[in-house]
Design a protein that fits this description.
The protein contains 14 helices and no strands. By secondary structure, it is mainly α.
């Protein structure tokens, strides 16, 4: 990878644009799984995901009193004012994009928004639940555009796929918490690994992997959503390879990029 391409992708990762792309791809993935048409609700989904992630990073950057150890938080410290303006523009576009969205999606989005606010207050008391809560909310968010307009009869296979995807999202968050444990400790930030300990993080990562593999086998048995389940299972395998690989400071950003990049993998289902 040339230096220019590497720097560009590094910036994309720091700005969480790869996370946004992953959310859009996963939403399109579930639209195809649930046999629904393309919906403009993809636009507010993309904007909302970027807003949530950027607000979270800016809040972390503001809490760090010194130059942040991680490139992501350091960038948000350096460009705090510009990113706040970008957030305002994104929020205006997000609200305007709701004009393109169906009533069902808006109602579902309002319910999720209220749920997010409730959970934010809950997480102040129970911060160790953050990764679990975010994984469920992320799954609900990418499912919303298709769930709101789906007309098919849901089966056990559909439910298993939703749970399987949520577990992959949980593994991703636990993995990032694991990779960032040293920089988070230096910067005084909290994460599941720092609160629950490295041993518990390892147990949960392996447990999540085992559950995803069991669900993948169950989906193969049912035979209705085999291709979709195999792709989600492959996402989990990639995350496990990152976890099992050597972790060095010079490879941390690359490992994070790959970890967030797994959510682009459902694009294979869209083109196959």
């Amino acid at each position: 990878m040339s230096g220019g391409i590497a720097r560009t992708y590094r910036l994309i990762s720091i700005l969480s644009l790869d996370v946004v792309a992953g959310a859009v791809v996963c939403a399109l993935f579930f639209m195809k799984v649930l046999q629904t048409q393309f919906a403009y609700s993809i636009i507010p989904l993309a904007l909302t995901v970027w807003i949530i992630y950027t607000v979270d990073h800016l809040m972390d950057a503001r809490r760090i009193s010194h130059a942040a150890s991680s490139p992501r938080h350091h960038f948000h410290q350096q460009h705090f004012a510009q990113l706040r303006i970008a957030l305002l523009v994104a929020a205006i576009l997000d609200v305007a994009s709701l004009l393109l969205v169906s009533r069902a999606v808006i109602m579902g989005g309002m319910f999720l928004a209220v749920l997010v606010l409730v959970l934010i207050f809950m997480l102040r008391k129970l911060p160790w639940l953050r990764e679990i809560v975010v994984s469920v909310l992320y799954t609900c968010g990418v499912l919303l555009p298709s769930i709101a307009q789906a007309r098919i009869a849901y089966t056990i296979a559909h439910s298993l796929l939703f749970v399987q995807f949520s577990l992959v999202a949980l593994t991703n968050l636990l993995l990032l918490s694991w990779l960032d444990r040293e920089t988070d400790f230096r910067d005084g930030l909290t994460s599941f690994t720092l609160i629950a300990g490295q041993r518990m993080s390892q147990v949960l990562i392996w447990t999540s992997f085992a559950l995803v593999m069991v669900i993948t086998l169950a989906e193969i048995y049912y035979g209705t959503l085999t291709r979709a389940s195999l792709i989600v299972g492959a996402m989990e395998v990639v995350l496990l390879f990152i976890y099992a690989g050597k972790q060095r400071p010079d490879r941390l950003l690359l490992q994070r990029m790959i970890g967030d990049g797994v959510f682009i993998m459902p694009a294979l289902y869209l083109i196959l």
